[in-house]
Protein 1
Amino acid sequence: MSAPPPANLKANPRLDRWVRFNADRTVTIFSGKVELGQGIVTAMAQIAAEELDVALERVATRPGDTSVGPNEGYTAGSMSIEQGGAAMRAVCAEVRKLFLDAAASRFEVNVSELTICDGVIEVAGTDRRTSYWELAGEVSLAWQATGEARPKPPAQYSIVGKSIARRDLHAKLSGAAYIHDLELPGMVHARVLRPPSYSARLVGFDAEGVRALPGVVAVVVNGRFIGVCATREEEAVRALEGARRVARWDEQPTLPEPVEIRELLPRLAAETKVVAANRAPAAPTKTRHEAVYSRPYLAHASIGPSCAAAMFAGGKLTVWSHTQGSFPLRGQIARVLGMPDAEVTVVHRDGAGCYGHNGADDAALDAALLAVACGRPVLVQWTREDELAWSPFGSAMVVKLAAGVDAAGNVVEWRHELWSHSHVRRPGAGDGVNLLAAWHLDPPFAASTPRDAPYPPGAGDRNAVPLYDFPVQEIVYHFVSEMPLRVSALRSLGAYANVFAIESFMDELAAAALTDPVAFRLKHLADPRARAVIEAAASKAAWRASEPSNGTRGRGIAFARYKNASAYCAVVAEIEVTERIRLRRAIAAVDAGHVVNPDGLRNQIEGGIVQATSWTLKEAVRWDANRVLARSWEAYPILKFDETPDVEVVIVDRSGDPGLGAGECAAGPTAAAIANALYHALGVRARDLPLTPERVAQAMG
Amino acid sequence: MTERFTLRVNGGAHEVAAEPSTPLVYVLRNDLQLKGTRFGCGTGHCGACTVLLDGNAVQSCDTPLWSAAGHEITTIEGLGDAARPHPLQQAFLDKQAAQCGYCINGIIMSAAALLRRTAAPTDPEIVAALDRHLCRCGTHVRILRAIRRAARELAGKPLA
C-alpha cells in the first residue's frame, strides 16, 4: 500500500512542473517554497538529491516562479518541510522510478538489477550504464504523478539528515544576492509617498513641482497613491522628500485611545465562537484560579526595507518580489491591473527576513503600478518609516484563563478565552485585495472581509487548545473583527500569546500546588514525545526542583507542540533581573521528527528564541489618536548585541519519523519561560507583554 | 548640482558624478556596482550599510559623498569574494552565522575594523563594536561565535 500523494503534489500533479534534467548533467528543481533565511532552498535540494541519487552539487533550484514552478500557496506556517518537502520527495521518487523503468527496458533487465549513483544508472556489476541525462529524451515528465512510487526508506539516507552548508550564503556574504540588487535594462528607481496615517486624505499635491526636480522621470498620482520615478536612486529619494513637502493631507483622529491591550481588545466589535469543548463529568474542584494575559501589536521589523521590481512590455507584466506566495500575489496584482493572470508573471527573489506577512507583497504592487504608469522597468524600495509603520502588524491579543484544581493538585477544569484580530490578511486570502496601494487608488479596492483561519491549525486560536490532559476544557475565541491597526501573519500567529498564557498559568498553578513546574507539567501530560522534550531541556539545564533564587537570578521552563501537530519544543530560560530583565541563557529541546538539516534546525531554534526574547522584553507598537508611532528603530527598539543570551539546542533524535515543521515552535515557550523565570527570581507575576522595566515595576506593585 | 569626485575604493580609483550630498551607499551600490553594501534604514541606526573609511567603520547611508572622497573606502567586496573569502567571511560561513543574511556584511565590516585595531578582542569589545548593528533573525549567538573564531585565526591561535 502506498500512502496518498502529498496535497501539494495533488494540486500540481505534472512532474515537469517540479523537475527538469538539463543538458549539462544538472537537474533543476522547482519549488513553491522560497528562501526567507530559513534555509529551505538548501533543504529542498537535499531532499531532491537524496531521492534522485544525484550529487547535491548537480541540483539547481528555482523557487517561487509562476511561469515554471508549482503553486504551493505560501511559504508559511512551518509547512515547507512537512508539505513542500513531502511533495518534492514524492515527485523525485516517481521521477527516479520512471527513469529506472526506462533503463530496465533498454537493457532488458529487471529494475531490481539497476543501481543509481550520482545520476548514472547501471546494471549492477556490469559496464552497461546510462544516466538521467541520456534517457531524458525518451522519458517524458509531462505526466501526472501517480503517487505510487515509494520514496527511499530513511535508513538509507546519506544526504538528508546532514548539516549541509547553506547554498545561498557565499553570494550573500560577498556581493549582489537580494532583490534590492536587481538591475534591469533601462530601469528607474522609485519611491512611494504614503499617507501619514491610515485614514489621511490627500487634499493638495503639486505634482508638476516634483516632476521638475533633478532626474525625475515620472510622478504618478492615483487617488492617494503617489509614486516618484527617477534615473538615479538618490534622485528618487530627493523626489520623495520633495513630494512629502508639497503633499497636503487631511488627518482625522480615528485611532482608539492607546489604553492597555487588556482593556482595548474586549471593547472592540467581536464575534464569539467555541473552538473546542470537552465536557466530561467534572471532578470536584478544591480551588479555582483565574488570570488574564496580553501581548501587544508587534512589528515584523525586517532589517531590509521591502523592495520589488517590475517590467511591463508587450502587454505582459513581470514582477520580481520577495513575496511568500508568488501565485496568490500574481492573482491580486492581475486583479488590480485588470489583466488576465496569464499575462502576469511573479518571480521570487530573496529579500531580508520577513517573519510573516510584511511589506513584500505591497511593494510588488507598487512596482507593478509604477512600471505600467511610467513605461520603464522599475525598482521600488520602501523607506524605513514605511517598513515599520505601514507593514501589517502581528495582532495584539488578550487571553483569560481559568482553572479548577482538585484536592490532589490536579487540574480538572480548564477554560481558555481569547481576544484577537485576524492573523491571515495575506494577499489572496478572502474576498478582497489585501495590498496597500490598492486601498489608496481611486476608486479603491476593498480589503478582504475580516476572518481568521479555522481551527485546526487556527490562527488567533493557534495553540489555544492545551496539549495537557485536562478532563474538562472549553476554548472560546472572541474574534475581534474591528481592526484599528493593519494586522496579518507574524511568525507563530496566535501561538505566541496562547502559549505564553497557558505556560505562565501552568507555572502559577504549579506554585499554588507547591509543586515543581517540571513535575507539574509532566503530571498532566501523557504524550511521550512532549514529556521527552521537557525532560531533555530540564536535564540539559541541570534543573533542580525547588531550587531557591538568590533574588536576582531566576529560571523558568515552558513547553508547546506547535499547532499541536508540528514540532515539540521546551525552553528553559535563565534570567538576571537588575533594573531590567536580561536573558542570560536559554536551553531548548526540540523534536522535529526526522530532521533534514540539523544545523539548519538549530539555527531556526536559536533565532526563534532570540527573536522571541526581543518581542518579550522590548517590543510594542505604539500609536496616538492619528498615527502609528513605530516609525524608526528609536521608536521601535529591538534586541541589541549586548543583550544576547547564550543559547543551547538539544535535538531529540526521531530518525525515520515524518518531519515536523519547526520554524515557529520556539516563540511561545520562550516568552513563558522568561516570565516564569521572573517569577522564580522575584516572586512577581507579569502577565502583560512586553516585560519592560516599567511592567516589572507595575507587577511588583 | 552634480560634481565629479574621485573615490578610492578597495584599492582602486573611481570617477563618479553625483550631488555632493548623495549618501555614499547609493554611489557604491549603483555607480560602482558594489552591491554587497546593504541599505537598511538611511539614518545610521541598523548598521547594514557599514563600510570602512580609512579603516574605521562608518554607516554609508549617512556618509555624504563629498566627505568620503579622498579617503580609503573598503567594502565587503574589498575583503574577499565567494571564491577567496576573507577570514571573517570564512568564519561566518564555517559557523553558518546567517539566516536571511541581510545584516551580516555590515557586521563583518565592523568586525574587520575591530580586528584591525584590536588583535585579540574580549567579548565585551566585540559586543561594543556591534553596538550600532541590528539583526532581526536572532542570529546574534552565531555572529559572536564567528567573530571570535576569525579573531583567533587572524591572531594565529588554534581555532575553536
Protein 2
Amino acid sequence: MVSRRRFLEVAGCAVPAAVAGGFWMSNPSRAPAAGLTCALVDLGADCVLPESLRGFARGLGAAGVPFQSLRIERLCEWVASPASPLGGTLLVAGGVLRSPRVAATLRATVNRGATVLYESGAAYTSSEDFAKERHLLQNHFGVRVDGPIDLWSPSAKSDFVPYVHYHWPRRAIVRDFSRMILVSRAQQAFATIDRVPVAERIRLGAGEFIFLGSPLGPHLNIDDREALVLMKAFVSGS
Amino acid sequence: MKKSIGDNMIPHGWSFEQGLDLIKKSGYDGVELWLGDVPWFQMATTDAQVADLLRKVQDAGLVVSNVSTGLHWESPLSARDPKVRAHAKRIVERQIEAAQIVKTDAVLVVAGLVTAEVPYNEVYQRCVEAMQELGTKAEAAKVKIGCENCNSEQRFLMSPREFQTFLKDVNHPWVGIHLDVGNIHDTGFAEQWIEMHGPNITRIHLKDVKKHRGRCGDESVYTNLFLGNNDWKAIRAALQKVNYDGWLIAEMEDRYRFAQDQQFYDTAVAIDRLIQGRL
C-alpha cells in the first residue's frame, strides 16, 4: 500500500497549496472542493506532445489552479492500492494509449470517482500506435475513434474552418492543431470541427472520462485566452 | 569588412573546386557553405567529407565565412509535429558541427515559418524555446547562431523592434541576427535594422530589392546590388555607425541568364565599392 505521505513525496508538488488541500486524500471528507483538486499526469514516453504537457502546466499556473505533477508510474502504484479513494480531476496531456496497464489504471481512476481528461496525441504517432490507442479506448472506456485526419494535407477539404467549437463545459472556440481524431457514435460529443465530433464525455463508474481528439495543451502554451477559459472550466467541472 | 559568396551560387554542373576557383579569381575572401543546397554538402555528408571541403577551400586560398541552410523551409523549427521539430534541431546541430570542422564561428538559421496552418504565436513560442536550447549547444561549440530576417517569406518578425524583442526573449548571447539587407522589402529600411541590431549582427547578406515588384512568374523581387531600391549610402553609414567589420556575403536570387560567372565578378566589384564608399 502506498501511504499518503509516500504518495505526496513521490508525486511532487507544483503548487504547495495543493498539498495543503490534498489530492485524493485518504479521508475524502477532508478533500477540498472539486475545483481545487487537480493532477497533471506525465505519461513519460507515451506523452507524444510534450509541448501540450508544458501547456497544461502553464495554463494551470496562469489560472491559479493548484495542481500536482504526477508521473504515470506513481499513479499506477497509487491506484493499485485498494484503500485509496479517488476524486478530483486528472489531466493527461498529449498522450498515446498503447499500454493496457496505463489504460486500466486510468479506467480504475474513473471508476473510483475521478474525472479523467485524456487529450490524445495519437494523431502524431505511427499508425500502429494509433491502432493500439483505438483498441484500448474502445475496450476500457467505450470511446470509438476514427482517423486521424490531417486537416491541412493538400488532399483535405479546402474550405474547412480551422477552429474547434466547444459547447461544453462552456462555449469556446479554439484553433485546430492540424491533425484530429474523430469520435464516432458519440453519445455526448461536446466539440466539433466543421460539425465533425472530436471530443466526447462518458460517465463511467463513479467518475467521468473526457476524450479530446484535437489537442488543447499547445494552445495553452501560447496563452490562448479561450483555451485557458476552457481548461479552467474542465478543471472546475462547470 | 570581408567579402564572401554562397557556394549555392556556383553554376549548375560546375564542381565545388571549379566554383571555388571562380570565387577566388573574382576577388572574394571567403565562401558561405549551404548545407542541403548543394550536392557536395548534405546532411549525410560525413565529418571527414566536410573536412575535405575545408581542405579544398583552403587550397583555393579562401576561408569559410559561415554555414547556412535552406533546409528549414521544409523542416521548420516551428512545426507542430514534434518529429519535424526534432529534425529541424538536428539540422542546426549539424550546421554547428560543420562550422567547427570548417573553422568558422557562425551559422544561419531560418528560425520559423508562419503559415495559415501554424499561427504566429505558436511559431514565436517554439522558436524562442528552440533557440534557447540550441544557443546552449552553440555556446559549447563557440559558434554563433544568426537567425535570418526573412520578413516576407517567413511572415515572422517583420519589424526590427519585433526581432529585438525575440532576441531578448531568447536571451542567449550566442543567438543573434543574420541580417539580410534585401529581405526587408517595403516593410522597412535596412539601415534602421543595422542600427538597432548592431552588436547582435552575426553576418550580413547582401542583395538589392525591387520594393514594388512582386514575385510573378520568373520575376524575382530581388536583384543585383545597386539595381534596386536599397539606400546603399545609408546602409554603409549605418554599418560604420555600429562598427560592423564582419563578413558581407553576396546572396543573389536572380541569376544571370548568360555568362553566369560574370555575376561573381560584378557583385565582387560592387561590394568593393560599398566597402570603400565609392557610391
